[in-house]
Known about the structure:
By secondary structure, this protein is α/β, with parallel strands linked by helices. It contains 18 helices and 16 strands. Helix 2 (28-35) crosses helix 14 and helix 11 packs antiparallel against helix 14 (387-414).
Amino acid sequence: MKRDNLTAKQLDANGRSKYAVFLPALSTFYSTQIDSPGNVNRVPAKFENGLAGMNWLDADQGYFTYKWSLYSAGHAQLDLAKKGENMIRNRDRNDTFILADSGGFQIGKGVWEGDWTDPNDANCAKRRKQVLAWIDAIADYGMVLDIPPWICKNPEVVKKTGIKSYQHSVEATMFNNEYFIKNRNGGAKFLNVMQGMTVTDSDHWYSVMKKYCDPKQYPNDHFNGWSMGGQATCAPTLALRRIIMMRDDGLLEKGVHDWMHFLGTSKLEWALLLTDIQNAVRKTHNENFTISFDCASPFLATANGQIYTNNIFDDRKKWSYRMIPSVDDKKYAHDTRTLRDAVLQDGVFTKFEESPFSERMQINDVCKYGPGDLNKIGKEGRTSWDSFSYALQMGHNVWMHLQSVQEANRLYSTRESCPRMLVDERHDRKYLSDVVNEIFASDTGKAFELIKEHDRFLTGIIGSRGNKGKKETNANTCFNNLFSETGTTIEQHSDDSGFDETVLDKMDNGEE
């Protein structure tokens, strides 16, 4: 059985990530499942390292290994005195990397209630203190606790948070930034979160928040990089323009601002765009600069009963990872064929790419319950899956997503294949990388001219938030939905790194 070292495949000869780094947005459900002693007897017979092999952060035991992940405070155990989260807390800090999301999305959805416009609100003060202490304790980098401005679009959330306007969002975020700067203990580096639903708001947000990354204004405790939210995650022209501004403001410096994260980015084309930007900045300005991006798609897909089966990398066409409804049939409860053999022989799937998880699994490892079997609450449910069935398929889906991103980067970098969005056929097949390199090799004025010149081409690179090729100035609809489904794929449309994990409990209990 193979063990796949995806970390090694990501690194160049100098030990740097040669591609923009995809961070699986680790589900609390998954980390809990592989910690649970009760699952020891559910481990597939071919899982030679048991539950430990399901931990990709474990370089010695993992069936595949990958050193980078994102973990959200919004779904975490923030009380550090309580046990749990072993995948995160017990990792080898010298050989792994965790970016912690502060949970601003939970505020945006009204889950973390309190008057965030009042610095003395007790609920907000407690949450602010908990989040900072948690990030400093468990993460390498963390995001500051931003208050997303799209809150004010939802009247119900306005009531729960006190954020009634864009300006309220700005002021509340500035207070949180000041709190983090004054109270951080040095355990983690912090990323300054950029927001804004329009170009005007994005420009204003940057103008008032950029000081928190400035060593001249905060010599000893400035923030250490950037996290791009809002419109910058679906509008390449805005993202490029913003990074040029950061460069020319002296806020993209080697050893000072080496990391930039893009929130909730699942499109393969954007994975390649971010690699192009990373490499161009390294070439012209900061050799240590690294871009990362995250999405929860591998976990969300499983929660919705879907599994990754294959990738689509056809030249000059749309690239994607294919997700379809997974096998869920009680007739397989005693079937010992491999998962792949069963689904292909029985015509459940027409294609199925093996992962280090699936090649170790039998079909009855997924379809646990047979006719008449009772689930954990003593009822016969409609599904053949138990909780561990989800965890097994999550592991497969994470590997598939990671492998897809790496293979897409390899194909694009060697020009063996190129997605339609990233080549401008009007200019003798001018590739996106050519445009990006030219932009970052230029001074501010020339860079902005080039961005404008290539506006049509850049605007056509559609992000996960669904700008649909429209100008970013008219893209307020980016935040209308948390998730959307198109065909057999699911795209993430938010800054959230997780999903509603009660879906898993409901399905396990036969309620779905």
